[in-house]
Fold each of these.
Amino acid sequence: MDNDAKKPWGKLIATGTVTAILYTLLFAFEKDVMASFTRTDGMYPLLPVAAAFAFSLSHGAFTGYFWDALGVKARPKVQERSDDADAL
Amino acid sequence: MDAQFIELTAGNIAFLLIVGFIGGLVSGFIGSGGAFVLTPGMMSMGASGVVAVASNLCHKFPKALVGARKRHKFGQVDIKLGLVMAASASVGVWIGAGFMESVRRNHGEAGSNLYVSVAFVVVLTLVGLFVLRDALQMMRRDDADREQTHRFAGWVQSVEIPGTMMTFHVANVRVSALFTLPLGFATGLLASTIAVGGFIGVPGMIYLLGATSLVASATELVIAFAMGLAGTLKYAMGGFVDIRLAMLILLGSLFGIQLGAIGTTYVRPHTIKLVTAMIMLIVAVSRALVIPVYLGELGVLAVAGPAAKLLEGASFAFMVAALAVGTFVIVGAMLKGRQLPTGP
């Protein structure tokens, strides 16, 4: 199948790399991160929210490409499963 | 900051990744799920209740965002309905949190736990049985692929109250805001009580407003995003979010939510209702099992020691079983759906 050529390998690797970097940074600097992310003064409470958005952006894209690359895609325009229903 | 943050072990990380994935899969499919296992799961690792709730919320809103975006691509999300519901749900969360606080103050931790468990059992049993009955009826019908508007929703849609009517195009529904507001409020109230507002929001959108199960479960993700974001900010201001726990759950759950969202395009409409009902009813059993424990702590029943431990263990096992059963049905339905003919 020439489907393989259409698979998003480049995007998968790029978003996967960014995600891996984010998780590596989180756990490599675990103590500093926890100290900053649990501060309640100033703008610090926004840090967990900002981090959640950043992780979801890269990891969300990565997981999308991941299933795509595996060939697990949405059903293309559900053509009448209603074949049988319409006949009734 | 007096919150308790735990040391992460390999076992803890594996638990968060696996339950995160399964919770994400169920969320992507029925609009909510996972919180009822993740929160007690994190508490059993040693996290305090408030940290478990806060960290769970911090993974919930980005997960819901990714799921909502995915299902929006499939044309299943009614953003306007989601935002309208989310607005009144926020008020419900706020009032519900205040009520929870007063229950805790007046009746202690056991009283609060008892209230939450009774709310779980009553709401999930009633709504779960209703949804299950409807799903089974749909399965038996010849036109199982056509989702009919429930007669109650038909009545709600027929009520014209000038100045309050709203049209939701994706859901293909025109109803008075006087119906959406209390529904959103109840969703928020339940979310603040049992952490899973979707158990009232999704059936409410289906049976009260007349949305299809596909649109209701997808739109619930918009509500979950809004409530999760607001809740995370509130808890972050108290320094309670453990970002490590939240991001570890997110690591697994985003794989799951993408798959669950894709799964909705392969299954028949009654499958979403069936999975929702099964999970609700199994979780209801789980919470019913711990009610004697809390009654024991309040001195009403003589339940303590090994008996209490046994009931708590069985309760947690049932919650895990709820997710496992949901996963089994979703994956099975997807595999079956992939064999059906597709369009060009």
Note: Chain B has a mean pLDDT of 88.
Amino acid sequence: MSGEANGLHIDLEGALDADHIGDVGVPASAELLAFTNAVELGRGDIDQTRAALAAAIGAEATTEAAAIIAIFNGLVRVADGTGIQLDDGVFTASITDRESLDINRFAGAANSADLHPAPGIPTAVHQLFS
Amino acid sequence: MSSIDEAQRSATEAIASPGDWLTGAQRIAAWRETRAADTNELDQERRRALSPNAVSGSHAGTAELSAPAMEVVHRTASDPGRLTRSWAAEQIAAIGEETYTELIGVTAIVTVIDRFQRAMGRPELPLPTPAAGEPMQVHPDDVGDIGAWVSQTVGPTTANVSRTLSLVPVTNQAWRQLVDTHYSHGAEFMNMQWDFPLSRPQAELVATRSTALNECFY
């Protein structure tokens, strides 16, 4: 959704593929993905990938990228640890993407297996934190 | 000090303080165990296994944390993507859903703090000294079954991810502050073209890769 709003065509498959470090349609994609993989998986040197990212997008933006990695490591734990279901509208809106991107293989999918969404519920991620 | 650093400092202080149902000493113990999960043999063996249930063994209790509490912290820290309802039900039966939820929240918060330090190339923070005092022990009135493993705020206007820790308001307050400063930026979250150094698509790209690597369905 943010890609569309910014006139970008995002390669979601590439974004989700842990082995892919390259352009996915977002400025500085390769540097962002390399940094994320280094922090998450220990693939690549964190200091080197952070320096490369800072050279591409600046120090402040790099700090924000580090903060995003950090907070999503928390978000996955509260989401998976409390067993929340997908919000109804997001469940409906993401059916095709979840299947094509093989996201339904994740264990947490079981939490939403019995969802029967009602209409008129938020359908986008930007409505989730209000 | 940046707002991110300030939020990290505030969260560190909150973890060292008495929480909802855990003392400051117990919350710091959970932080210590979260770190230990990185190298703990049982945790790593479970991570490597096709199914974590295929690995026998258990975590012993300590002076601060019971054996089920240790299990919650270690599994949540080391392998969150493969937690199941039956596993959670077993732990909740042993320690109660409030303590279970608080341990999930504490593990998540300290993971955020430690992961940020690592990403920035900084040394691990020393564990803070626990503050004295008793837990608040407040059970919110507006929580119930909304389909999650633990009770959460009832009502159609709040998204599920925003109410994960609503059962434990003290811990939830520290958590929500971290989310706001590290990612959602208050009302700006609705703005797909926000004016921050990291553009919205760049932020979502990092978020997407990070959640995928953690195999988070939500």
Note: Residues 40 and 191 of chain B are 42 Å apart (CA to CA).
Amino acid sequence: MGLLSGRVALVTGGSRGLGRAICLALAREGAEVAFNFSRSDQDAAELLALIQGLGVRGWAYKTSVLDKAGLQSLARTLEAEAGQIDVLVNNAGVGQAVPLALMEEEDWDRVMSVNVKGAFLTTQAVMRGMIKRRRGRILNISSLAGVKMMEAPVHYSAAKAALKGFTEALAKEIGRYGITVNCLAPGILEAGVSTNLPEARLAEYLRHCALGRQGTLEECAEVVAFLVSDRNSYMNGATIVLDGGV
Amino acid sequence: MDCTTCTPTPARQDRPHTFLAHEYAACPTCEARIEGRIVLRAGKVYNLLRCLACGPQETLVADDAGRYLIEFLAKGQVPEGHQGDWLFKTTTSTCPTCLALLEAEVVIREGRVFFKKACGECGPSEALVSEDARYYVQAYAFARAGTEPLEFTQPAKAGCPVDCGTCSDHEQHTCLPIIEVTDHCNLECPICIVDNQYSSHMPLGVFESTIAGLIRAEGRCESVAICGGEPTSHPRIFDLIRAADRPEIGRVVLITNGLRIGRDLGFARQIKDSGAYVALQLDGFDAETHRVLRGRDLTEEKAATLRVLRELKIPTQLIFVAARGVNEHQIGQAVDLLLGEDHILSLNFQPVAFTGNGGGRFSHDPLDRLTIPGVIDAVDKQTHGRIKKSDFSPLPCSHPQCVSLTYLLRLNDGSYLPFPRFVDFRKHGSLLRSSATLPATAEMHDTLHEIIHDVYAREDDTERGSDVLAALRRALDVMFPGRPVGVREELRIGEAQAKSIFLHHYMDPHDFDLERLRKCCHHYAQADGRIMPACGFNLFHRGAAKGPDTAVPAWAKNAPLGSGTASARLRVVT
């Protein structure tokens, strides 16, 4: 019996990077896993095969987290197929290394939209069933840049900080229905959005990190699996920092 | 719990228990058989006894209040195949002839509920109290703890109804205060529940001190109702309305037959300018109804009144006294009127009470009369299901047998949908209030949020789910605009979001139930500071409360002292 046997999870931005690792970790723990993606059909197909190879059902949906109607439809379709959605991981996000002085309005809107509005729209679509069933786990993937002062793009930090507020307000709002909402703020990981980090910044991070290394996607995904499991039943509105001790 | 009727007043305390019902028991000291109040307190059940000889006492009845309630309700289930009357419980009622307080058996007979009484002087009697035993029994599940006024105006000595009031045994504060400002009237209604003497109009100073007493006892009132007699016959009625126009009072309501409003546009404009609301007596729409209930054909006059109220957009409540075989066929038409006119905020059906100078003599059969379930049934049938039986719930604020109600949400297309189509009143008890509209309180804010989530989760299965959500969003936006809102504005905003239908069955000597009186929340405020529960005032105290120069009601003149088996004997009808 895995941590998540019998549970159905939806992971946004699931086909690559941290999302992919989360999908596989949840599947290893027995969850049936659905994910959405917006770019590579091939990546999605490969991940789906890996999920199914772990002996659980999987679903891949090519839907943007900014497509409200598409997300509502995704939630209904998945609930019809799987019976329910127990777990939502709002992972989809984008970053962009650009100083504020050169940041275009479009840059700002894009980062804020995908990171924040995407979580809002997906949660709104999925929580309908969770309220109905009086049960659910929602985990928002933020960033250390959203909770600590770091040299990071302003719009990215702002968006990730917004997810912390989103988490706390939502946890208060729907906790009465047995739905917990938490937030995970990883530090710099070996892959994902920090892949293109300038060397100097990475070095500075490692200087301050007690473990002296970057985290791995798998390490982060393992924590996600625990956070969305029934074993983690009393945590609500919390932001967990996963940074090796910065 | 907080009173669900009124805007919370911080200093107003909850009752320490939930009053459920009456039960006769032996006084633990002298063993006399007396009535007691069954209350639920801290998970246990107690019987509070007030023995005239031994004083107040209490006995533990059960250790598990939840189980007790289930078993109590189960006593109202008549076993299949049972023949004859099924005893549900006992209570204290009155002899319909001499008004003596009597122990009454509450029995279920062929799906209906009756009181069976035996007066030592006048003999046995029976009265129909509910046309639907299932509704009657299940209503007890809505019992909730009441709230105390800031101060009780009388200590409890002999107990209810002698110590009126309200005495410290009373189970609910004053949700709707009523002040009788005159005993003059321009009609002689055959169903009048008072006994107009045409002797006096309440002086302004007395009215002011009555209001002051009310504020002292209650802190603030969502509404104050001014009635009579006919209050529009009071020569200084607008001075009275102005005197009641205080920050502690949300709205002033004029309970009127409306005749003066219909024929005197200037007078109506003054009402509009005063900000008062009108509670219009409107029992039907044809000549015969008016003749039977009000003594003459008022069809044209009532139509004129409705026209003026509509033209001036005076916020209006309708009061429809419903009598078996007289006007019950016009119940649906009254609902149509409510739903068709923006300025009409609520509709209050009152099954006729056979008491007072008129009603006490009105031809009736106590075994075949309209009760709350009968009116609900008529609403369902005559609105062709637009308002259904299942849309109504007992009001937990008062005794649950006294009032039933439903709220109707205004949808954005102007149509109305009863709240129970998308809300479980058992879960959202704070919606059930003895008030015509929804208040913009913090409690209501939380309740609306919960309802929105519930409806959102069940949108596909909810009647007009998306329309309901849109209307609730509108209600949230306007009720909680993110700026300070005064009491008056709060009420006006709430009024635009929903309408209400109330059914309030006032009691008479046939169906009087002391248990109900104990939790009455419609009270007559008196000049001497007393605040008297309505049906106790109507049946026992009206004459005495007005002072020694006021005639004792004719129907009470024969009430003998010392009769009856109840714990208390009335002194006020001597």
Note: Residues 105-133 of chain A form the longest helix (29 residues).
